[in-house]
Specification:
Blueprint: H1 5-8, H2 24-37, H3 43-79
Length: 81
């Protein structure tokens, strides 16, 4: 087996390797720079995503409700005698 650095661990595990803190203005500038990279959906995409999510949630609710009803009837059939 080889003694590569990937096997021995990450750089964060070394003693004496301290992380530097970022100042608040630098952090803010970095956040703003990252937010400028975000691609926001159009209104048409947003409406489409909304309906897709709603249909998925309704279908999952129907499946869970059907399973709950079925297992409830099964439990009553078993324990009611």
């Amino acid at each position: 087996m080889s003694d590569s650095s990937a096997v021995r661990g990450s750089r964060d595990d070394r003693p004496g390797d301290e992380r530097k803190r970022t100042s608040i203005p630098t952090f803010y500038r970095q956040v703003v720079a990252e937010l400028r990279k975000v691609v926001y959906p159009t209104q048409e995409q947003l409406v489409t995503y909304f309906f897709v999510v709603m249909v998925f949630v309704i279908v999952m609710m129907a499946i869970v409700s059907a399973l709950d009803l079925g297992f409830g009837k099964l439990a009553f059939a078993i324990f009611a005698g």
